[in-house]
């Protein structure tokens, strides 16, 4: 049941991934799930760029160099992490949003629709036994230097994907009742 998949969804980080490759068919299924997200005025603002193989390494190198260029006191461990995380992933999907050219709805609604598409991806990965993680580093503001983004398109982060071996711990959440007011 979907409720069980929702409860099992976790952030599984690149350091936890093994070397098992992710098939193109699996990635396509995850992207198809994304495409069924709700969208106001049917703008379907989500855009994705799939990086595998050498493209992942180029991304890691770009992020590390941009970090060293823009941070006055870059830390070596962070440089290494920026290089290694894409390499460890079976695939990295850049999460982008294409703003409606007519601006027929508020931008936050298109960001929300894109986030719903990512949640669909995450739930699909959970069902398929693929670990995943949405990373939104400050460096995403420079992604127009890496990708050819269209007018009105922005990068919102990266969706890392990879198979994993270890048991993922359960998460504890505060009671939902404390977050709800009945009127």
TrEMBL record:
EC number in record: 1.-.-.-
Pfam families with a match to the protein in the record: Nitroreductase (PF00881)
Broadest EC class assigned to this enzyme: oxidoreductase
Cofactor(s) for this UniProt protein: FMN
Record keywords: Flavoprotein, FMN, NAD, NADP, Oxidoreductase
Source organism, top-level taxon: Bacteria
InterPro entries cross-referenced by the UniProt entry: NAD(P)H_nitroreductase, Nitroreductase, Nitroreductase-like, YdjA-like
Signal peptide range: none
Domain Nitroreductase: 6-163
Gene3D superfamilies recorded: NADH Oxidase
PANTHER family registered for this protein in UniProt: NAD(P)H NITROREDUCTASE YDJA-RELATED
Family: Belongs to the nitroreductase family.
Full protein name: Putative NAD(P)H nitroreductase
Organism field: Arenibacter arenosicollis
Lineage: Bacteria, Pseudomonadati, Bacteroidota, Flavobacteriia, Flavobacteriales
